[in-house]
Amino acid sequence: MASDHGGGGAAADASVNNAVGLGLRASLEETTADVACKDSQSLPRPLSISDASGSVNGSRFRVAYQGLPGAYSEAAAAKAYPNCEAVPCEQFDTAFDAVERWLVDRAVLPIENSLGGSIHRNYDLLLRHNLHIVGEVKYAVRHCLLANPGVKKEDLKRVLSHPQALAQCETTLAKLGVVRESVDDTAGAANFIAAHKLQDAGAVASSLAAEIYGLDILARDIQDDSDNITRFLMLAREPIIPVIDRPFKTSIVFSLEEGPGVLFKALAVFALRDINLTKIESRPRKNKPLRITDDGSNGPLKYFDYLFYVDFEASMASHNAQNALRHLKEFATFLKVLGSYPRDMSEA
């Protein structure tokens, strides 16, 4: 879900009608109206947590993603695994569970967006679940303005979408003079206006969502910034065997003792070996967010206890990477390799 996730959205808050958005979400869950689109009854129902004990249907390679059919995450799953059976899930947690319980073979989930930043929820879930990163895929987000057949731009009074999508299209929406209303995801916005045959409302979503829900595309590429790219992780139950004959990336998470220069010392294990870091993200530990220390003079001090997520350009098959982590393990209080996998060298 390219722009359907992330910790941002503050820029759109002032223009988003949250109260209406909550009502839309409730209506979206309840509606059973027929969507005016081709073969709408064949759309897969999103997996929920209660489906976790179900059985797998068919023998096609199944890939879980978060959102409704037509979400950007579905397109990313198709790019990562062409000809797969994309399985929609209601929540990120559901997708993780679906892989762990053998309901699907893989999950493709967003981890960062070039405009919205990191998807913190998935960083936390990577540590909570015992899945392995086996690949990555970059996907370029291209927002479209959708409406029911016959509806023109001048008819629109409001536009629905995920808060980040609304924020990313601020210039276009401001020119239209419409009210922005927040819903859970872009494909859900398209589904809602189609199901209710709204004549005064549009949606910001993908061209695939327009095709699925039988909507017209009033405008393409309405995002303010053309460089809107989301990086997705491919998750599996088992790790892949790393090699050194192609570009690889390795993702790790670790924690450190509190003290001056400790983080510098940790990062130095990579610099000393000419290993390039591509990302570093810190997250407070969930189980014990505060660490209490006694400096001997001012009494007990409380610090946040952090986890550090790091991506670096090296394969775990290389002695250089192995030595770096062996060095890091000498003073890290916790260290886990989340995956060593091929880098996505393709165009988004």
Describe the model.
The protein is of the alpha+beta class and 348 residues long. Helix content is 27%, strand content 30%. It has 11 helices and 17 strands. Strands 1, 2, 3, 4, 5 and 11 form a 6-stranded mixed sheet that branches. It has a 5-stranded mixed sheet with strand order 8-7-9-6-10. Helix 10 runs antiparallel to helix 11. The longest helix has 13 residues. It is elongated and about 65 Å long. The relative contact order is 0.17. About 13% of the residues have low confidence.
What is the element layout, followed by pairings?
Elements: H1 10-13, H2 18-30, E1 62-66, H3 72-80, E2 85-89, H4 92-100, E3 106-113, E4 117-118, H5 120-128, E5 132-140, E6 144-147, E7 158-161, H6 163-168, H7 170-176, E8 179-182, H8 186-195, E9 201-205, H9 207-213, E10 216-220, E11 229-236, E12 248-256, H10 262-271, E13 277-284, E14 290-294, E15 300-304, E16 306-312, H11 319-329, E17 332-342
Parallel strand pairs: 1-2, 1-3, 7-8, 7-9
Antiparallel strand pairs: 3-4, 3-11, 5-11, 6-9, 6-10, 12-16, 12-17, 13-16, 14-15
Helix pairs in contact: 10-11
Structure keywords:
6-stranded mixed β-sheet; 17 strands; 27% helix; elongated
| Coarse structural class | alpha+beta
Strand portion:
25-35%
Number of helices: 11
The end-to-end distance, rounded to whole angstroms, is 14 Å
Q: Summarize the main sheet.
A: 6 strands, mixed
Quaternary organisation: single chain
Determine the fraction of residues in helical runs and give it as a percent range: 25-40%
What value does the Rg take, in angstroms?
A: 22 Å
Low confidence ranges: 6-40, 49-58
How do the helices and strands follow one another from N- to C-terminus?
Answer: HHEHEHEEHEEEHHEHEHEEEHEEEEHE
Number of DSSP E strands:
17
